[in-house]
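go over my protein:
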Amino acid sequence: MDHYPLMVDLKNKKTVVIGGGKVALRKIHSLLEAGANIVVVSPESVPGIGELEKEGNLIWWRKKFTPDDLFDAFLIIAATDNQEVNESVARSAFPHQLVNVVDNPKLGNFHMPSVLDRGRFTIAVSTGGASPALTRKVRDEISEAYDESYGRYVDFLHKCRELIKLGELEREQRESLFGQLLEPQYHDPVRQEEMLSELEGLRKEGAEP
């Protein structure tokens, strides 16, 4: 394994995107979903970036890249169509900063996998940059097995976990319940509501003096 897989919390983290094209815009949309504070550096951009700026979703510096643009950035993405600029971004970053160069991941210290997003439930597929086409193919195949209902199902599991933790149950009882919740019947919204009611009852019983 050449890279260590991580799920990184980007909420309110300064993220600098160098480039204003369609590739940059795709990255920006994903970063916004993660709650990043985004600064775009590019003399020009596709319309979508300007619209996001008007809506207050990002800051756009209308200029060519200079190393100072990376100051205090947590994460950096070089997404221009100019190889020299992308290489300059990678060279200018500090060792502690996370850097991704979209057209040459080896220049940075991380790359982005293909992601299947189902709310709390996320599946990431990576080939270490060897074949982005394969990662997308595998992601699309997985999406057929894990459809949108899994987002609701994982939200249900989260609620159950919180209620179980609040109840005064022995460890064996908790583990048994966690295992039970993985059974297919709990994909049914009706059965989910029934279980939540049962767990709420257990919680209230545990709270009684």
In short: The chain has seven helices and seven strands. The radius of gyration is 22 Å.
